[in-house]
Amino acid sequence: MRILLATDAWSPQVNGVVRTWQQTIRELHAMGHEVEVMHPALGRTVAAPRYNEIRLSLAPWRIVGEAMSRPFDAVHIATEGPIGFETRRRCESRGIPYTTSYHTQFPEYMKRYFALPPAITWRFMRWFHGGARATLAPTQQVTEQLRAHGIARAQTWCRGVDTTMFRPSVTGLFADLPRPVHLYAGRVAREKNIDAFIETRLPGSKVVVGDGPERARLERAHPEVRFVGYKFGDELAQHYAAADVFVFASRTDTFGVVMLEANACGVPIAAYPVIGPIDVVREGVNGALDEDLAIAAARALQVPRESCLAHARSQSWRRVAEVLVSHLACLCGQ
Question: Which residues contact 261 (CB under 8 A, 6 or more apart)?
Fold first, then answer.
């Protein structure tokens, strides 16, 4: 199958959407499928409002038009930005069936950054995803949320983790820090609710792996927290493995692939009982959930690392790719 993927999130951006699609595409290639990615870096871009590290396409019609001029079997739209919008427009005008996916809680983000009432953003979401043959959501909770807001063809997808890359290891990292080490990895941005992690009274130390618009402010205000910037590949895996607890403070993520990556390194999760973590964390198995992060972290410390490993090993990127293909195959009659 030759698949066209439309996404406004792609390298060099660092986030869960990019990581999900890079891993999924790798599995699709291994399964014998061809994937062409339509993304902003194929043309001129401009920084997203209030988020300079995200680049948006200035001429999506050129990128999408060129890709859709070549033969393809199926179209999937991953994001609701300019590339996704133009792909949807062309599919609708030409009667081409397509699927979409829901990765980002845009109604919450638009409220946080622009004070836009969620009802307005949900109206746009219903319009954007309404024509799709299926809208793939990362968890059952998100699927139910989408259906409750009128996106009737929402279907549960899944997420995976590369357990050959993310694995337990013994390193000298954090040897100078008091234990336990509480670690966060990801974008250092307002929507990640990192202030809640940093301001929670926890024993030991706190480490933030990542970068973003809030890093400078937080680093100035909290010299007691170690900020190490972005890490990738084996270096990221070593940072996970050197921690005692992974603290996921976001209340707006649809999933949080970083939680599975931490589990694959043997590290339990502490998070709020909200959409995203509630479908990832099993109490006492791979972490703990509580409205008080300090309580969640204390309980997570009691979870055996071997239990976290076993949970992560049950989550496969091949299964993620297979579910996607099953939906795309319906578009081309396979």
Answer: 161, 166, 185, 236, 237, 240
Any idea what DSSP says for residue 171? Answer: -
Q: Within 10 Å of residue 200's Cβ, how many Cβ atoms?
A: 18
In 3-state terms, what secondary structure has residue 209? strand
Cα dihedral angle (50, 146, 135, 253), rounded to 10 degrees?
A: 40
* Residue 151 CB contacts under 8 Å (≥ 6 apart), including other chains: 102, 125, 126, 129, 130, 135
Q: Which residues pair with 37 in a beta bridge?
A: 5
What is the reported pLDDT for 332?
A: 67
Tracing tokens 């921690």 back to the chain, one arrives at 243
CB proximity list for 148: less than 8 A, separation 6 or greater: none
- What pTM was computed for the model? 0.86
* Cβ–Cβ under 8 Å, residues 51 and 76: no
Phi, psi dihedral angles at 5 (to 5 degrees): -110, 120
pLDDT in tens, 50-72: 777 889 999 999 999 999 999 99
Residues 257, 278 contacting (CB under 8 angstroms): no
Residue-range domains of the chain with CATH: 2-160+317-331 (3.40.50.2000), 181-313 (3.40.50.2000)
Reduce the DSSP state of residue 273 to 3 states and report it: coil
CB-CB contact of 243 with 268 (8 Å): no
DSSP reduced 3-state for 104: strand
